[in-house]
Design goal:
This protein is mostly helical. The chain is 70% helix and 0% strand. The protein starts with a helix and ends with a helix.
Length: 121
């Protein structure tokens, strides 16, 4: 996942910490959508779903965050905690979206597993 180095610089964290933060937001998103009848583990381990989420992150979180922070950066405000608090409001934008095609594929991929797990007397 390609992230603009400016974001990690203003947050004063390394890429790995930023990636962990993004994944924690993905986990929260998956928790919300696990109510559609898909196990949380199946959602969080789907590479295709995480890739979709990361693409949404680039547009709805990173791009918006960089645009909105520009006046603060131009004013030379260097408070990483303020920026992190500011960033934490952006992932909510993704919560209104879900890729129904990917969710349905994950559900369909689980159907054979459910049949195999049934106990017979």
């Amino acid at each position: 996942m390609e992230t603009n180095p400016l974001i990690t610089q203003i947050l004063k964290i390394d890429y790995r910490s930023y990636d962990d933060y993004r994944f924690s937001c993905f986990f929260k998103w998956c928790s919300l959508y696990s109510e559609l009848g898909v196990p949380l583990q199946a959602l969080t381990t789907s590479k295709a779903l995480y890739s979709w989420y990361c693409q949404q992150w680039l547009g709805l979180v990173e791009k918006a965050f960089k645009n909105d922070c520009k006046p603060y950066l131009d004013a030379k405000i260097q408070d990483a905690i303020v920026y992190l608090d500011f960033l934490s409001t952006y992932p909510e934008a993704i919560e209104g979206f879900y890729p129904s095609v990917l969710i349905n594929k994950i559900k369909n991929d689980l159907k054979p597993l459910k049949k195999e797990c049934k106990h017979t007397p």
